[in-house]
Amino acid sequence: LLKEGLLNQAVDQATADFRNIRHLTPAQKNNFGIERSDDMIRSMLKQVTTLNVAAWMIGMITILGSSIALMNIMLVAVTERTKEIGIRKSLGAKRNTIAQQFFTETVVIGQLGGIIGTFLGISSAYLLSQVLHFTFVIPWAAIISAFITTFVVAVISGLYPALKASKLDPVEALRYE
User: Fold this and answer.
1) Count of CB atoms situated within 10 Å of the CB of 66
2) Separation between Cα atoms, residue 177 and residue 174, nearest integer Å
């Protein structure tokens, strides 16, 4: 409260000084503006918050899209390998083994995507830092978060295709063309 009062006094004093410098009469309106630093900071923080929310929304949409794409890739793999699944089941492979194979493939594909994405992101940021002459710091927390996220996305995306593959009837799977 004391700080606010001091700021208001400073603004009032600056306004009076500028009016004197510009020779404004009491009837004339100010032909200048005074902006307080705390107002500018508040405005900048609002803009940063808006950008953060937008970035999170874009990230969530991207994660949703990538999880759907990964699940579709694995569903196509199950469909293309239906005969292989039928042969393995007729030779005694358990549902758990089939599910584990497709689940593992999904996690490996997801993690490879995470590794490639991280490499490309770090490389791009490093090159940009060299061009714009700013210090480059490897964002370890973001990298760890990205790997955790890709793992979770791969686990979620791999569940349905793995279960679908494990539930295929061997006789029907062998008939599949």
Assistant:
1) 18
2) 8
- H helices present in the chain, as ranges: 2-21, 37-80, 82-90, 95-132, 140-166, 170-175
The DSSP H or E segment spanning 94 is none
pLDDT score recorded for residue 106: 95
Which tokens is 164 given? 């679908």
Task: List Cβ neighbours of 174 (8 Å cut-off, separation of 6 or more).
Answer: 83, 86, 87, 90
Please tell me the distance from the alpha carbon of residue 162 to that of residue 143, in angstroms, as a whole number.
28
Domain coordinates in residue numbering, the chain: 59-175
pTM of the model: 0.71
What lies within 8 Å, CB to CB, of 48 at 6+ separation is none
pLDDT in tens, 19-72: 999 999 999 999 998 887 777 888 899 999 999 999 999 999 999 999 999 999
**For residue 129, what are the CA distances in angstroms to 52, 56, 84, 85, 163?**
21, 23, 49, 50, 46
Round to whole Å and give the CA distance between 166 and 97. 8
| Rounded distance between C-alpha atoms, residue 158 and residue 69, angstroms | 11
